[in-house]
Structures are given as structure tokens and as C-alpha cells.
Amino acid sequence: MSVWYRWCGLGVMLVMLAGCGGNGTESEEAQDEPEPVAQPYPSDTSEPEPAVDPFDEAVEIEFSVTLGGDRRLLVEGESNLPDNSRLQVVVQREASGIRWQERTTLTEGRFQAGPFGSGSGLPDGGYAITVNLSESTVQPEGVRARIGERGEHLSGSLVSTSRHGLGQVASASRRFMIGDEPRRTHDSVEVRGFE
Q1: Beta-carbon neighbour count of residue 147 at 10 Å?
Q2: How many CB atoms lie within 10 A of CB 23?
Q3: 159: part of which helix (H) or strand (E)?
Q4: What digits encode the pLDDT tens for the residues 105-128?
Q5: Mean pLDDT, to the nearest integer, of 35-59?
Q6: How many whole angstroms separate alpha carbon 55 and alpha carbon 159?
Q7: Which of 17, 71, 153, 154 could form a Cys-Cys staple with 55, CB 3.0–4.6 A?
Q8: Is pLDDT larger for residue 20 or for residue 76?
Q9: Rounded to an integer, what is the distance from CA 32 to the centroid of its chain?
């Protein structure tokens, strides 16, 4: 009986092998198809894009703060950075470390952000306001072309190395005191009352 099983098993295997072989038309059809021919790139007859001048000025960022009737801050400023530069404005309360931040874009040399603060307004005290030029990697292509892929064309006293190692960035900071009776300080601050 075991011989019979062996012959049946051998027969089944031969039938399976014959079925897998096919009739040979698939391999012939594959050989009849023409191989793709590499097409040369079309010649570029358009004008090359004009070279962009690198940013060769010392970075300047000036801003002012307005405290509205709702006791929230509005930050407005101007800069000589290229238009469409992405900036981040950060307001931090010195006593508690609470921060508010907003991203904005430089348009025609000007930017605006805010209002900053909770719905009930900002309490009296000291605040640090910082305007940061974000790393070149997050800037639009036109800005990157001017300031460099790693911000290498940035210069001036506001420029420093990114803490993430992504090149150079720029930052301007000022302190503001809000309230009628600012606390005593030896730092250089600007005192603001609310309007």
C-alpha cells in the first residue's frame, strides 16, 4: 500500500509541475514587448532664474508695544529682513514665567502680532517681549535664498547661533513694565500704563 501512495504522490507532483510551466506564451509575450527607451530631458529653452543677492545688511528689528483698554498687548514693528520672513513674537510674564506666542510674517518691512494675554487682561508687572527670526529651514524659499540655507548671510548684534544647531537666527528683546506702580528695578525697562 505504501508503494501505491508513493506513486500517487509522484503523479500529483508531476501534474503540478506541468501546470506551473504554462504553455510558454507568457514568457514569449514578455520578450516581444519593446524595452522602454530612456528619453533625454527636453532642452531647457527658458531663461535661467535671476540670481538673488544675499542679504548683506546688519539685521535690524524694532518694535513697540501698545496696551489696549482690555489690558492685552499688541506688538507692532519693522525690520530690514527680506519680505515674507517668518517671525515669532513671544511675551513672557517675568513673575510667573507664563508665555504667549504668535507667528507672524514680515510684509513690506512691517509686522504685527497680538493681542497677547488672557481674556481678563495682563496683571501689573514686568514682561519680556522677544521677536525671533525663525531658522532658515522653516523660511520660504525666497527668504532662504537671501539669508542662506543656514542663515550664513545674517550679521549684526541681533544674530546668534540657533540653540538647535540649525544655523544662525536673529532675535530682539525688550522689557516692559505694566501698571501704575511699577516695582523697583535696576534694569533698563520702559514703563507703560494702559490706555
Answers
A1: 25
A2: 7
A3: strand 159-161
A4: 999 999 999 898 888 888 888 899
A5: 62
A6: 13
A7: 153
A8: 76
A9: 52
- Residue/partner pairs of 115-121 with CB below 8 Å, 24 or more apart: 115/68, 115/70, 115/72, 115/73, 115/74, 116/72, 116/73, 116/74, 116/75, 116/89, 116/91, 117/70, 117/71, 117/72, 117/73, 117/91, 120/71, 121/70, 121/71, 121/72
Provide the residue type at 132 as one letter.
N
Of the chain, the percentage scoring pLDDT greater than 90 comes to 32
Backbone angles phi, psi at 10, to 5 degrees: -65, -40
User: Amino acid identity, residue 183?
Assistant: R
Ranking 41-50, 117-126, 165-174 by mean pLDDT, the lowest is 41-50
Helices (H), the chain: 2-21, 25-32, 141-147
Read off the C-alpha cell for 166.
Answer: 540649525
Name the amino acid, one letter, at 30.
A
* 155, 174, 72, 95: CA torsion to nearest 10: 130
Per the CB < 8 A criterion, the answer to whether 129 and 176 are in contact is yes
Tell me the three cell numbers of residue 112.
Answer: 504685527
Strands 190-192 and 168-178, sheet pairing: parallel
The set of cell numbers assigned to 143 is 527668504
